[in-house]
């Protein structure tokens, strides 16, 4: 799933490549992906792209004076920038991974795609993202903008396991499954540590780890083409998606806890006092 650094990089790429160009055509191939019906997709044609940014993990493309195309890429969504399109023919609805296509006046443009069968990419054509896109209205402060006092208050204010709290977009915006594994590894915290039991020192360490991991990932990602971002993301990971491989910090074997639809990775020596975490589905968990 694209997280804060990847969405930031996609926005930066659009600012460089698409801003200033006018939309020739906005094509909707997946009607379930576009969650709004007013304004109609046809209203986008002829409007200039005026900006690109993000709200947490939501991409926001400015159109003309007062419209925004806001996109949540979900788990398997992505943005593919095309220097040109093979065919001028409009997309056929309901076929293939392309959900939406934006064609620009210079012949280039971008596709918003979603792989797999579970379709959860969501796009909104709105005038005010903050009030009109429910997921954006509920976002907590951005992980890269939150101050230490506010971070402390928000983490302590939400009872639960730190892995879940850190990835709750209403607590903090932008952190997902992959970078939260990395942040907890850098902070030497168990993913199952309870927020109510964290010491002041642990909170400061966690805050600093979050800033360092996210800032570093943004720096490595911005400037990369959309097509290269996924490789860049994987290359920077120390524990995430590295089950069975050695921890680059201590050499212990990276382990995994799997859930119904996702998994987390961690290093026992760095994070849980050397004890492997029990799979919560099988036995009582270790904190
Ligand atoms: Zn380690």
Automatic annotation (TrEMBL):
<dbReference type="Pfam" id="PF06827">
    <property type="entry name" value="zf-FPG_IleRS"/>
</dbReference>
<dbReference type="InterPro" id="IPR015886">
    <property type="entry name" value="H2TH_FPG"/>
</dbReference>
<dbReference type="InterPro" id="IPR000214">
    <property type="entry name" value="Znf_DNA_glyclase/AP_lyase"/>
</dbReference>
<dbReference type="GO" id="GO:0006284">
    <property type="term" value="P:base-excision repair"/>
</dbReference>
<feature type="domain" description="Formamidopyrimidine-DNA glycosylase catalytic">
    <location>
        <begin position="2"/>
        <end position="94"/>
    </location>
</feature>
<keyword id="KW-0863">Zinc-finger</keyword>
<dbReference type="Pfam" id="PF01149">
    <property type="entry name" value="Fapy_DNA_glyco"/>
</dbReference>
<keyword id="KW-0326">Glycosidase</keyword>
<dbReference type="InterPro" id="IPR012319">
    <property type="entry name" value="FPG_cat"/>
</dbReference>
<keyword id="KW-0479">Metal-binding</keyword>
<keyword id="KW-0227">DNA damage</keyword>
<feature type="domain" description="FPG-type">
    <location>
        <begin position="238"/>
        <end position="272"/>
    </location>
</feature>
<keyword id="KW-0378">Hydrolase</keyword>
<dbReference type="GO" id="GO:0016829">
    <property type="term" value="F:lyase activity"/>
</dbReference>
<keyword id="KW-0234">DNA repair</keyword>
<comment type="similarity">
    <text>Belongs to the FPG family.</text>
</comment>
<dbReference type="InterPro" id="IPR010663">
    <property type="entry name" value="Znf_FPG/IleRS"/>
</dbReference>
<keyword id="KW-0456">Lyase</keyword>
<keyword id="KW-0511">Multifunctional enzyme</keyword>
<keyword id="KW-0862">Zinc</keyword>
<protein>
    <submittedName>
        <fullName>DNA lyase</fullName>
    </submittedName>
</protein>
<dbReference type="GO" id="GO:0003684">
    <property type="term" value="F:damaged DNA binding"/>
</dbReference>
<dbReference type="GO" id="GO:0034039">
    <property type="term" value="F:8-oxo-7,8-dihydroguanine DNA N-glycosylase activity"/>
</dbReference>
<dbReference type="GO" id="GO:0003906">
    <property type="term" value="F:DNA-(apurinic or apyrimidinic site) endonuclease activity"/>
</dbReference>
<dbReference type="GO" id="GO:0008270">
    <property type="term" value="F:zinc ion binding"/>
</dbReference>
<dbReference type="InterPro" id="IPR010979">
    <property type="entry name" value="Ribosomal_uS13-like_H2TH"/>
</dbReference>
<dbReference type="InterPro" id="IPR035937">
    <property type="entry name" value="FPG_N"/>
</dbReference>
<dbReference type="Pfam" id="PF06831">
    <property type="entry name" value="H2TH"/>
</dbReference>
<keyword id="KW-0238">DNA-binding</keyword>
């Amino acid at each position: 799933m694209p997280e804060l650094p990847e969405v930031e990089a996609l926005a930066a790429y659009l600012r460089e490549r698409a801003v200033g160009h006018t939309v020739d055509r906005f094509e909707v191939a997946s009607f379930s992906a576009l969650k709004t019906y007013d304004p109609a997709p046809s209203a986008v044609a002829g409007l200039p792209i005026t900006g690109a940014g993000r709200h947490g993990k939501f991409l926001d493309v400015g159109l003309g004076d007062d419209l925004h195309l806001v996109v949540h890429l979900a788990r398997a969504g992505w943005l593919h920038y095309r220097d040109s399109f093979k065919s001028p023919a409009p997309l056929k609805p309901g076929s293939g991974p392309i959900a939406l296509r934006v064609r620009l006046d210079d012949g280039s443009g971008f596709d918003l795609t979603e792989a797999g069968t579970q379709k959860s990419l969501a796009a909104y054509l709105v005038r005010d993202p903050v009030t009109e896109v429910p997921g954006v209205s509920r976002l907590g402060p951005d992980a890269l903008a939150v101050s230490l006092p506010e971070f402390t208050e928000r983490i302590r204010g939400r009872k639960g396991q730190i892995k879940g709290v850190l990835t709750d977009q209403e607590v903090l915006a932008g952190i997902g499954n992959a970078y939260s594994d990395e942040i907890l590894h850098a902070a030497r915290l168990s993913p199952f540590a309870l927020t109510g039991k964290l010491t002041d020192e642990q909170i400061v360490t966690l805050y600093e780890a979050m800033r360092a991991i996210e800032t570093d990932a943004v720096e490595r990602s911005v400037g990369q083409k959309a097509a290269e971002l996924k490789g860049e993301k994987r290359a920077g990971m120390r524990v995430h998606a590295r089950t069975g491989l050695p921890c680059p910090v201590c050499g212990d074997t990276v382990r995994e806890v799997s859930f119904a639809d996702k998994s987390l990775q961690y290093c026992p020596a760095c994070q849980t006092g050397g004890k492997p975490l029990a799979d919560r589905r099988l036995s009582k968990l270790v904190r």
